[in-house]
Amino acid sequence: MTAKRLKKFLQLSWADRFLLLDAFLRLGVTRAALLVVPFKFIAPRLGRQTLDLPEDPDQGDPPEWTRRVSWAVETAAGQTPWESACLAQAITGKFMLKRYGLETRLFLGMKKDSDGKLSAHAWLKAGNGILIGASGHETFTILSVFIGN
Length: 149
Fold this sequence. Notes:
The protein is of the alpha+beta class. It has one domain (12-148). The protein is built from 5 helices and 5 strands, in the order αααβααββββ. It has helices spanning 3-10, 14-36, 39-42, 66-77, 86-98; strands spanning 48-50, 104-112, 118-126, 129-132, 141-148. A 5-stranded antiparallel sheet has the order 1-5-2-3-4. A hairpin with a 5-residue loop joins strand 2 (104-112) and strand 3. Helix 2 packs across helix 4, helix 2 crosses helix 5 (86-98) and helix 4 (66-77) packs antiparallel against helix 5. 30% of the residues are buried.
């Protein structure tokens, strides 16, 4: 950690420091699990899986404090020495929010670009808001959704 980053970290409130460290550690555990454990064993822990998405009901905006969790996950993901891609971030956010009893929906999507190359994306919603992975999510075809807390 550079001196500038350390100074910035120390200027955060204790609550934000704890949240950032929690996200950093959980990203590491999640990344390790994704590398070692087959996804079929991880999936049941993410909630009830569905392929059929009913019309997304208006669930209101997520509580404002959920934005701090998404900030912590996205900020920590940018600082990890390992890859912390969208799936690791979405799973980490889901488990961090689970401790507060907040129901979330984790989406897995896929798209094919103009060259025929497939790419995948994961994003996390609470209420009507996308907390993690919002950028470009609308271009992906939803393959599966994990609902629950």
